[in-house]
Every structure is written in C-alpha cells, then in structure tokens.
Amino acid sequence: MVTTTDRLNSPGSSQPDPASSRLYDDDFYRWTQVMAEALRSRNWSALDIENLVEEVESLGRQQR
What we know:
The protein is mainly alpha-helical. It is built from 3 helices and no strands.
C-alpha cells in the first residue's frame, strides 16, 4: 500500500492520485487516515481532491 510518506511533496501538482481514489473505494476509513496525514504534512500531491470535496460538501449538508 502506498502511503503519503512514499510520495513526493509537490504543491504544484494538479494530477489526481489514482492510489488514493482506489483507496477511497476499497477502504474508506483508511482513506480518511491517509488524507488527514497528507493534510497535516501539507503533502498536497497526495490528496484525493475530488473525493475530499465530495465528502466535505456532504458533511456540510448533514449539518444544515
């Protein structure tokens, strides 16, 4: 399994991380942990932006 520490920290990267997208589908809890680690370490290239946006929007709708 690829972790955020295995990836380069390149803030300018706009390419989605396919491993993170697969992890989102295969093991949601682990995906949340990997995303939290990437956010804390500011490893922007490790973020699964598309799914993060979807989850944040979903959380916002739940709190209305």
